[in-house]
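ok trying again, last paste got cut off:
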Amino acid sequence: MALHVIVGAGPVGTALACQLADSGEEVRLVTRSGGGPEHPGVARVRADASDAAALTRHTRGAVALYNCANPPSYPQWQEHWPPLAAAMLQAAEETGAVLVITACLYGYGPVDGPIHRDLPLAATDPKGRLRAWMWQEALERHEAGAIRVTEVRASDYIGMVKPLNSYLVFYADQARRGRTVFTFGDPDLPHTVTYIPDVARTLAAVATDERAWGQAWHVPSPPARTVRAAVTDLARQCGARRPSMVRIPRPLLRLASPFSPLLREIGDLLYQWDRPYILDAAATTRTFGIEATPWEEVVRETARALNARSTASARAA
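nice, full thing came through this time. structure:
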């Protein structure tokens, strides 16, 4: 049994902690609040992970340190990510734990064709450049022999995630309620989504496999479906009628952006919905044998989570 330290108790951190604990590993979950899943194999620790000394103290003896954190909102990325990333690097260097970074696809920027891991990190928007910088900083430390690092990149999440933290789950929640679904982009373009348990499985696999270190890996994900088809599948599984979907006109989004920090940040990412957004994770499957969870299971579990959350909210009201 080895010690694994996870920073962040969001959907990915929680799924990873439970998965590792279920397999018999020792898990220490670090968050500002001391929260996380109530699991007998998970020790929850209250600490500020951007405090390098504190994080190092909690990481000593660990085989791996996982960055599963995420600032609460896009406007906070520029402020919160650099100190947290720096603390992670220092803790990994001082303890010898393999640093495993959970990441997205923003660093690539707009891409024509499938998104594979050999593409350059050529983002031009602030969030994409920040994610690219974080990886380059870590990779330089790895190549200098100071740390061992690997990064796992996923597309938009689906699964047990709060609707406001996933565009597709948000759309599905609207459809479940019988509302018209207003989309940021063309609902008839294919768009890969990544199931949270598959992210956790990939993180666990690359942490202790030397073949993974010094490289980035994509999470195997179900075949890309159009947003309309995916939301329709989820609505049907939730027991709702076929949803009506309307694309928000781009001029309207631009007009509203000055009055909404969130919309301003989303504006940098609208390219993802203007063309097919397809993740290629073939290298991960070839190397580690990880395959995506079947779409039918993804739909079933996501719908179950949505319905359970709705029932819980109704009881609390």
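cool. The CA atoms of residues 217 and 284 lie 6 Å apart. Residues 3-156+194-218 form a domain with the Rossmann fold fold (CATH 3.40.50.720).
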